[in-house]
Amino acid sequence: xxxxxxxxxxxxxxxxxxxxxxxxxxxxxxxxxxxxxxxxxxxxxxxxxxxxxxxxxxxxxxxxxxxxxxxxxxxxxxxxxxxxxxxxxxxxxxxxxxxxxxxxxxxxxxxxxxxxxxxxxxxxxxxxxxx
Length: 131
Known about the structure:
5 helices
């Protein structure tokens, strides 16, 4: 399973592709509908965040499929860990790759993400981001 909190630029796409074990691996992509700021998150209006997540999901699926990866996906709740957890109820995963923003430009919802994901998901978790 791949949780995308940002788009897959070329270098990041290659890194994700290298982390997919085999050509036969089926990938589930989850795009959390994350708000840009804590303030917008507190307002609870997620329409814009869901549109952005749908666009991010469509772009990621197109890039993965264009590189020969069998992938399907869904938009999830704003918390990346909750989004992965909900998707895993329908699509059990051997590993979760979480695509994040580069260190130093990470977003409010990425703080402590690795630790939270490892505690909650009960499956190997790896964060992938640009440096």
